[in-house]
Amino acid sequence: MSFSSIARRSAGAGVILLLSAACSEKSVEPAEPAAAQEAYAVIIAGTPVGYLNVERTGNDYAIDYDFKNNGRGPGFKESLTLDNAGVPVSWSIAGKTSFGNEVEETFALNSGKAAWSDATGNGQAEVSEPTLYINQFGSPYAAFIQANALLQDDDHAMPALPSGELRLTEMETLTVTGEDGDKKITTYALSGADLDPDYFILDDENKLFAYITPRFITIRKGYEAEEERLRNLAADYGAARYEDIQSRYAHQYDQPVRIKNVRVFQPETLDMSEPVSVLVEGDKIAAIEAVDATGGNEVVIDGAGGSLIPGLYDMHGHMGDDDALINVLAGITSVRDMGNEIDVLEPLREKIESGVLAGPRISMSGFIEGESETNNSTGELATNEEEAVGLVRMYADRGGYHQIKIYSSVKGEWVPAMAAEAHAHGMRVAGHIPAFSTPDEMIEAGYDEITHINQVMLSWVLGPEDDTRTLARITGMAKFADLDLQSEKVQRTINLMVDNNIVVDPTTVIHEFGLLARNGETRLGVADYVDHMPVAVQRGSKVALLNVADDADDAAYRAAFDTIIDTLTMMHERGIFLVPGTDLGGAFELHREVELFQRFGFTPAQALKRATYDMANYMGFGDSRGAIETGKLADFFLVPGDPTEDLKAIKSIALVSRGGTIYFPSEIYPEFGITPFTDIPTVSGE
User: I need a labelling partner for 187 at 20 to 30 A (CA). Which of 289, 519, 539, 656 fits?
Assistant: First the structure.
């Protein structure tokens, strides 16, 4: 008998029978059902960071969930009730998101009428069949709640609210060992709500055992020793999914490929060429010829008069399998990874370069963090200067790391020795400003680049006692509202940056998100494409990152973003080199980042040049990337419009070439629940 059929047959196991004594004249009060306790550990990259505790009484659940990493994390308390088919009929969630946004979410189903309230507002619907609510916030235990209902459904699929459908797929069964002995478990994928499935595990009693991702796991207490093995399962499932997509949708032609009737962006002259045809042989551009040029035995793709743009760079990524393909489909053919686990990043890069996975060309940064109560679990930890310098040397010896990235819990006094070691190995030095240090000190210590514009600005508004390892580095930005950019302390930093050729990776788009997003309003950065996204992305687009408590907070955060734009404008005018990065996964967010460069003085063509040609040269790849020229790598994308006139044109991509492998995004987007933006170009001669 299959695991699924066992689960369906045992669905009524919790029913309580009420008995009365025939010989008694008094009615007997039914006994209260005993509460069952479940306890889980929350672990990130091998480091315990929090807990998930569940108390179940009959069909009623009380859930307490909290974890903290990198000085922040969510905390929620949930109360929910299921019907006898396992479908939630009431659900309340209260708490705070990782960045402190207050959460009050409710759902109720009564007599065929569903009503809910979340950060996007209120909703309601008529329900005529078993339907699952997709909670906007809350704990990973939701995966069990939804799976429990889906396992009792014949086809393991149900319509969902606010929209869409949830589907459950059984993956594999295996055995784990822990304090309670060996246990048989089964892994599942839950899909339909978001771009990627959720992976989780049930035990042989159909109870939640673990919720798994490649970095994050919520696992039953007593079995923590299995956490790395189970996280690796999530990595394997994700990789298998993306390898399958690559095998079905990557067009690798044996013949030369001619993309005809296109205008090519020319970064050095900041304009578009006359109509031409671009010939690709292997992974390189073989020729740029007349629009009507032809050759024998070619695959011909009709560009329909569109614009061919060199591949974009996201200069602030943290890559995983899930990010890799979506970035390529968005025209991002190169990414600078700004911090990752070695055992995640290096194998991912190898799979991409071997063609097993679709993904951008990755430049790696060696992530170094200091050990503290609020340290980031990503990367390598040091407890003293000697260890920190040793980590610099370790990254240099591994090869392939062009820079180190210093994080917030590194002690400022270690940085001169770390920077000297990095520079001795030909590596650059970038990063956050360590807590209780200033940009001025880090510039003098040997920084080449500062990551995030708030890291430059915080010392102008905070005191030496303020701990920027905490949310103070986010909420403290409210003080930017009253900042005098002509003050001596501001100008001293700017002058040091100019004198020392300091580069800034502002990640403007994430600051726009943090300071301007409001609950219930579609945020600016996603407005142009969110209607094409699945339900979870659409709902997430209307959620604030920070807690905006009142009108004063609202005004301060909006003014703070204006000050950020003014600061970046001043930096650009002073010749400080600004690079486009997202820290939000890249893809469509990178399109918005490039668009925001116009706010501080770039024309559309200049912003496009900065995200392509300038980045290739800055990263040392100018001889092979950054422009559509004979002999360079065939890294480019095709859009119907002209982004030198309107940068929004880069958001509608018809074709991407990554080293001569051709992708048509409109073929692939339905795999993620994304509605395509353009038609697929006409292809002949295959």
Answer: 539
